[in-house]
Amino acid sequence: MSGGEPSRQLSDPRELLEGYLDHYRAEVLRLLEGFPDPEVSRVPSGWTPVAMLKHLASMERRWFVWDHAGEPLDDPDDDRDESGALRTGESFAEVKAFYLAQCERSRQLVAAGRLPDRASRIGRFREEEPPTLGWIMFHVLEEYMRHAGHLDIARELAEADQRAAPGAAR
């Protein structure tokens, strides 16, 4: 993952989408590296930073593997429990490995496609007109931007809790 923001000189939509997807993929990992207790929730809804990373990996898998490429998945929503809450019982290392593998698989599928290519009718789009690869890439980017903001706030809360803990260096 490159991590840096794409060049300001880019004008090609594909290069911009690919560049910003990689930028936010790396940003999410940057926010999580060194996160105090990534398996502990700091927000009222109860999601943990590790569960958010699992959600992002599953989101990549759903949109690019299942919806776009049409590869069957046993459980396309494996990042949520019966109530719809984000969950995972896995460690940060396990989820990070799954996340990195999903990002790489997404890159491979995107590289093999063109922006106007329509998603398959295997996934969610059996009854309606499937979106284009370009639309899917933009939608996934939007998900990353929103959730990177969530993780940024959760990290700020975790670091504030750490500073406020008895015995913390001031």
UniProtKB/TrEMBL annotation:
Source organism of the structure: Nonomuraea wenchangensis
InterPro entries per record: DinB/YfiT-like (IPR034660), MST-like (IPR007061)
Protein name: DinB superfamily protein
One Pfam family named in its UniProt record: MST
